[in-house]
DNA sequence: TTTTGTGAACTAGTTCACAGCT
DNA sequence: AGCTGTGAACTAGTTCACAAAA
C-alpha cells in the first residue's frame, strides 16, 4: 500500500466521468457478493478497456494487488473518497419548474449520498410548496443565504434559458464553485468555477444527425 | 456553391454536437437581425474556435464565401438539413415518471421542431393521463404499434434502471434506431443503433470530484 | 483587403505490451 | 502462473498558418 499522491497532476474530465462509472460497477459487484475483481473482469463485464481502468486508477494511487486484482469494497472506498463522496455533498436546485421538480426527486442522487438541500425559485406562488417526494421550494433569497453560509456545494440550474446566465452569476457570487446546468446555450463562468452542461437539445439533435446520415439503414453485411 | 459530399466520411460525435451548437448560435444571430457572420465572429461571440467551426462545416460542403463569411439564414438552412431537422423528427418518451413528464413538456424540444408523439408507460393507472402541457400517456403496447409502423424516430428512455435494458431491447426490436437514455448504467445495443446516454449521477459526481480535488479553493494569482 | 478551406503541426486521449510484483 | 502499473506507440481531436478566392 503505497498511495502516492502525484502532486495533484491535472486529471481530465473524461477520467473523472469514468471513475464515477467504475464506482457504479463496483456497487453492482458488491451487491452481487463479489469480493474481488480485476481490470480485465471489469472491462469484460461493463464493456470498458482494462488498460484504461488501470491508468485511470493509477492517477490516484496503487489500489490493486499484482497477480490478484482489486478488492471490491476497498477500491469502492478509495473511489468514493476520490470523488468526494465520503462526506455529504449538498446540492441546491435552482428553478422549480418541471425539470427542477423531477431532478429534486431523482432517486439516483439520493442513492449515492447527495443531499438535496432544496428547490429555489423566484415565483412567489411556488415558494412554500414541495415536490412529490417532499423537497421544499424556497425563495431564491434563501438560496443566497445558504450559499453565502457555505452550505451549498453544487448548484443545479434548471431555470429558463433567459435567466440562466443571471442565476449562474448569482450563484457564483454567493460562493458556489460547481454548477450543473440544464439550460440551453453557452454560459460563461470565471476561472476556478466548474460548469457542466447537460444540453438536451444537443443530445437529441446528435441522434437526429445520426439518422439523417443514414444511420437508420441496415448496414450491409 | 460546390456542395461536395465527401462520400459520407465518418463524422465524429463531437462534431455532431457542435453542429447543433452552431445552429443555436445562428438562431440567436438571426433573431437579432444579423444577416451575415464569419467563423471568427461566431467564435468570438460564443467562445468557440474559428478553425474548428470551419473544419466542422467543411465535412458537409463549402457554405461560406471567401472574404465575406457565411450568410446566416443560408447556413442555418444547411445545418438544419445536415442535422435532419428539415423533416419532422418524431420522439417517443418511454416512462411517464417525473423525468419523463418533465421531458415531454420541455420547451427546447418543440422549439427546434421535434414532435413529441407521446408518453408511454406500463402502469395502468397512468395510461390515459397526460402531462401538464397535455402530452398523452399511452400503454407501452401502443408504442410498439407506432414504432413498428415506422412512426418513431427517436425513443427517449426515462424508466427505472432495472427496466432500462429491457425497454431498450424492445424499442430496438420495434425498429427504433436512435435512443436517448436517461437511466443510469451502461446499456448494450447492437450495431447500427445509436445510443446516447445522459447520466445525471456521473455529471454530479464529476463536479463533486472537482470540488474534492481542491477545485473550490481560490487559485493563487 | 478579408475570410474561407485545408494540409501540417500539435495536443489529448486510448490502447498496447511488457517489466515487475505476488 | 496471474495481474498490476506504466512507458511507448498509436489514434483522435484541435489549432495553426497559409494558399486560394472574392
* Biggest β-sheet description of chain A: 6 strands, parallel
**Biggest interface pair, counts:** A-B, 74 and 74 residues
Q: What is the alpha-carbon Rg of chain A in Å? A: 20 Å
Instruction: Going across the biggest sheet of chain A, name each strand in turn.
Output: 5-4-3-6-7-8
> What percent of the residues of chain A sit in helical stretches (DSSP H or I)?
40-55%
Shape of chain A: globular
Query: Could you give the distance between the termini of chain A?
Result: 50 Å
Order of helices and strands of chain A: HEHHEHEHHEEHEHEEH
Would you tell me the overall average pLDDT of chain A? 93
Q: Beta-strand level of the residues of chain A, as a percent range? A: 5-15%
Note poorly predicted spans of chain A. Answer: 1-6
Number of strands of chain A: 8
Number of helices of chain A: 9
Oligomer: homodimer
- The structure class of chain A reads alpha/beta
In short:
Chain A has 221 residues and is an alpha/beta fold. In chain A, 44% of the residues lie in helices and 15% in strands.
Describe the structure.
2 copies of one chain form a homodimer. With 221 residues, the first copy, chain A, is α/β, with parallel strands linked by helices. Chain A has helices spanning 13-31, 39-46, 50-58, 72-82, 98-104, 107-111, 140-148, 161-173, 200-215; strands at 36-37, 70-71, 89-94, 114-121, 137-139, 154-157, 178-181, 194-197. Chain A has a 6-stranded parallel beta sheet, sandwiched between helices. In chain A, helix 1 (13-31) packs antiparallel against helix 4 (72-82) and helix 2 (39-46) crosses helix 3 (50-58). At the A-B interface, helix 1, helix 5, helix 6, strand 7 and helix 9 of A face helix 1, helix 5, helix 6, strand 7 and helix 9 of B. The structure holds a DNA duplex (22 and 22 nucleotides).
Amino acid at each position: 500500500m503505497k498511495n502516492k499522491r502525484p502532486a495533484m497532476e491535472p486529471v481530465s474530465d473524461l477520467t473523472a466521468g469514468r471513475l464515477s462509472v467504475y464506482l457504479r460497477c463496483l456497487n453492482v459487484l458488491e451487491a452481487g457478493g463479489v469480493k474481488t475483481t480485476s481490470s480485465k473482469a471489469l472491462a469484460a463485464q461493463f464493456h470498458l478497456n482494462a488498460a484504461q481502468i488501470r491508468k485511470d486508477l493509477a492517477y490516484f494511487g496503487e489500489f490493486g494487488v499484482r497477480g490478484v486484482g482489486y478488492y471490491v469494497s476497498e477500491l469502492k472506498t478509495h473511489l468514493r473518497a476520490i470523488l468526494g463522496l465520503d462526506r455529504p455533498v449538498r446540492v441546491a436546485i435552482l428553478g422549480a419548474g418541471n425539470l427542477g421538480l423531477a431532478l429534486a426527486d431523482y432517486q439516483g442522487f439520493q442513492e449515492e449520498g447527495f443531499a438535496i438541500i432544496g428547490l429555489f425559485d423566484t415565483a412567489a406562488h411556488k415558494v412554500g410548496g414541495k415536490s412529490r417526494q417532499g423537497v421544499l421550494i424556497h425563495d431564491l433569497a434563501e438560496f443566497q443565504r445558504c450559499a453565502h453560509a457555505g452550505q451549498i456545494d453544487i448548484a443545479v440550474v434548471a431555470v429558463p434559458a433567459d435567466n440562466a446566465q443571471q442565476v449562474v452569476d448569482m450563484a457564483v457570487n454567493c460562493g458556489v464553485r460547481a454548477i450543473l446546468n440544464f439550460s440551453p446555450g453557452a454560459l460563461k463562468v470565471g476561472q476556478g468555477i466548474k460548469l457542466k452542461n447537460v444540453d438536451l437539445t444537443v443530445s437529441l439533435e446528435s441522434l437526429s444527425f445520426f439518422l439523417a446520415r443514414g444511420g437508420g439503414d441496415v448496414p450491409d453485411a
